[in-house]
Amino acid sequence: MAPNPWESPIGIGDARSAGRLRSAALSHADPQTLLLLWPRELRLLLDVPCPQPPRELQGLAFAQGPSCSRTQYPSNGRCCSRCPPGHKVAAACSGESNTTCIPCEEQHFQANWTKESHCTPHHICNQKAGLIVYRNGSKERNVICRCQEGTHCSSHECNTCRPHTSCGAGEGVQQEGSHANDTLCAPCAPGHFSNASSSTARCQPWSRCQEGQVQKANGTRATDVICEALPLPHEARKSHLLVLLPIAAFLLGALLFLWHRRGKCPRKRHQDLPPEPTENEETAFPTQETLLGEQAGMQEKDCRLAQQEQV
């Protein structure tokens, strides 16, 4: 085994030579080498005795007692056991006996290692306040209460619940409510609408008129686009006929009426007069000319009256 260069000079020569060698070694040694030295080698090199703590500190360390683990606690100079979760202390340790533990009673729990002699009662979920049991409790954990569906806590303590806010027309749900937070509403973006009050519905996009439809009304934040079907070709002709037929019937009736009135008037006077009778006829019917003349005069008078009425 190779000799230790730090110990060999100390065992040879007088004390004065050893001191000079120690100083020379320390002056030439780098910090990393000094950090690698063991405490014993440093003491031999420096010839310094191991320091002792003051008596005041020694008494303080003794008064603090023994160092106990997380599952223990100091008592009368010894470490006593804590009771595990779900238990409580029935009898503290004393003398040679250790801690006596018993389980927690019903509707109580203890979540940590403890030296307490009692357990904590479970929370009570008040249904009248809108609370329900979200997670049942045990001897090691508490009951967890939550608000019913559609409600949220009214405060940080969550002793009561209140219904979620409903977003009105023109608004939609940006974030749905939970057991802890209320509904978050926001106005509908352009091209979207909401026509109902709801705590869950979001804004819906406007409808698009399909082929064969025409947009009748524009959409708003609170209303959708209104579409209607285009009329078919035969329906368009039918609608046109329904408009034109009454007009044509009226015109035809007016023409018939005029034609009927004009048909009673003589076109020309000479056409209405009878031919001159011969000598035999004059002698045979002396009064026929007189009667026809009077009849023609009456017809001419009626025609003039009819023409004046038309004007």
Q: How are strands sequenced across the largest beta sheet?
A: 1-2
Number of helices: 8
Helix-strand pattern, N to C?
A: HHHHEEEEEEEEEEEEEEEEHHHH
The first-level CATH class of the domain at 164-232 is given as Mainly Beta
Average pLDDT, all residues = 76
Which term fits the overall shape? Answer: rod-shaped
Q: What is the CATH-assigned architecture of the domain at 164-232?
A: Ribbon
Integer-rounded radius of gyration: 61 Å
Structural class comes to: alpha+beta
- Uncertain residue ranges: 1-15, 31-51, 57-63, 280-289
Task: State the total count of DSSP E strands.
Answer: 16
Q: Within the CATH hierarchy, at the fold level, what is the topology of the domain at 164-232?
A: Tumor Necrosis Factor Receptor, subunit A, domain 2
Termini separation comes to 155 Å
